[in-house]
Amino acid sequence: MNRPLALLAAMTTLAVCARAQTAGRFDDYVLALSWEPTFCSSHMSKPECSSETPDRFDATHLALHGLWPDRNNDPSHSYGYCGVDSTTQSEGDSGQWCSMPPTGMSPSTQSALAQVMPGTQSCLQRHEWYKHGTCSGLSADDYFSDVVALVQAVDSSAFGQFLTAHAGGTVNAQDVLSAFESAYGSGSSADVSLSCSRVNGQSALSEVTLRLSPQPPSAGALAQELLPATSSGNCPGRFQLPGVQ
To answer: Does 35 fall in a domain?
Structure first.
């Protein structure tokens, strides 16, 4: 390798290593839950989308995108890769998730995760662990066990039941927020962000985002852990909850 190329390679390695951060130095968690049929409407080449069926869990329930240790005033969620080597970081950033090392979670946790996170078919859990989970201060098994419980708690709440009951239909945003308050208390609608994207020319729910306090997440105390949302999202007054045909 000539000297300019060697210097460029060294600078690239240093830049990647500089992004590695220290675990436990965050202000809150961001729990990102996806409405998978909306996601799959524009990602049909992904294994989890080509295999999606109307009776699969994620066809009618919120699914896990990720749980991210987060810092205030950081909309890009750049805090990540805590203690992670440069090769794994590069694989994560370039989308080569199945080339990243296994997370080390137990088979039972992996099985439970696969239901609420269909993206495991694309090795999304490896990306989420190395970019975000490593910054939580938890083991991979504890981190994913906690997040599975969180997703299950949201899906079984009055809010989750409302979405499941209206899967394949159209809902009023105010009714969705009312269902959230039924689950988590008066005024809690200020703690949820609803994001929409376009499916067949119509607004459709794509993601539900919650901010949680920075202690290890507890599904049983979710109402007490909610923090005010940094944004209410971009969903209009009425939007779709696409189903799977």
So the answer is: yes
Helix axes 173-184, 158-165, angle to 10 degrees: 150
**Bridge partners of 21?**
82
Whether this prediction's pTM lies above 0.85 is answered by yes
Task: Please report whether residue 12 resides in a domain.
Answer: no
CB 30 within 8 A of CB 67: yes
Provide the number of structural domains found in the chain: 1
Q: What is the pLDDT of residues 49-103, one digit of tens each?
A: 999 999 999 999 999 999 999 999 898 999 999 999 999 999 999 999 999 999 9
Q: What is the pLDDT of residues 201-245, one digit of tens each?
A: 999 999 999 999 998 888 889 999 999 999 999 999 999 999 997
Placement of tokens 């590695």 in the chain:
20
Specify the CATH number for the domain of residue 98: 3.90.730.10
Residue 17 belongs to a domain: no
Q: Which of 147, 142, 163 is nearest to 208 (CA)?
A: 163
- Residue 45's contacts (CB-CB under 8 Å, 6 or more residues apart) are none
3-state secondary structure of 170: strand
